Hints:
This protein is mostly beta strands. Helix content is about 10%, strand content about 50%.
Amino acid sequence: MASSSPAVPEDSELPARRGRVRARRAAVMAVPATLVAAGLAILTAEGALGVQFAISGMPFTVTATELNGTGFEQFGGLDQMAPGSPNEGDTGGQVLVITSAIKSATLTKLCQSVDLGGTNLLLTAGGGKDKVEATDLTTDSTELSGDAAFDNIEIGNDASTLTKAGVKGPIGVFSQQADTVRIANLRQTNYATTAGVFKLPGLKLGFSSKGC
């Protein structure tokens, strides 16, 4: 897509910006993060991307009274905003995330909201007898909480060797996987979600003064 050329910063500004980006990348490789829902340490590393598109940089909240999944994987990564995004702030357009991949999942009473500044774009589904269904689901989150239980969990895998959800991260990245996962009272702050199939029974979409 054609666009006007951005203004070129003065040379004195370039080292500072590059320094911030390098420091952020180093942090991704070295800083441990804690998954609140499971109480498990996750070491993140650069290059583990849960999505292959430029994110908007606007976080959104997702909640569900219960998530049940088969084939679970999790590792750290970096998401990237489109060049020149007004949401990049001083991050260089990068967001450090926890990528969760689930081969198949059901969610009860799904709620998703985006704060647009004074109002929220609100989506709800799965509040009746039929649950939300997803296959090949991935979420890139900065926060995740709930009451979690796993079957046959493996902690400390190299992300390039994961087998449970069909997603592989880069070699050298700390990760975990399990046969099944259940999270009650799920709450996430996400920057991206992808799914092969996403069924939303009882879908309602509109604007609201309150988010999820």
